[in-house]
Amino acid sequence: MAGEIQIMIPQYGELNRIYSDFIISHTFSFDRQKFITDFYKQYNDTKTFEAAILELVLDKPKEQYTLVLNSLRTEIEKNILIYEKHPLFMNEVFLVYATTCRQTI
Question: DSSP H helical segments within 1-105, as ranges?
Fold first, then answer.
């Protein structure tokens, strides 16, 4: 389970790149929409996430888990900053997502 955190970090980075690109272009591909959906489906359970963090902290040396947690914190902070800088961002993402889904059905 702790390995999930290490897998999550680059995925979180990709999510942030998708969001940043969307802010510039106001569009994204179906594959990117699928990535967002899959990411949130995979990591929406906070209890599982907390258990993975605890397992990482309890099973790994401090130097190792500190590095992993700092990387995770960096990606989460980037994500929060995107939302803070662009408060209407999610409304626009959902609008584009819904429009694109209707066009592909």
Answer: 2-25, 30-42, 46-59, 62-85, 89-104
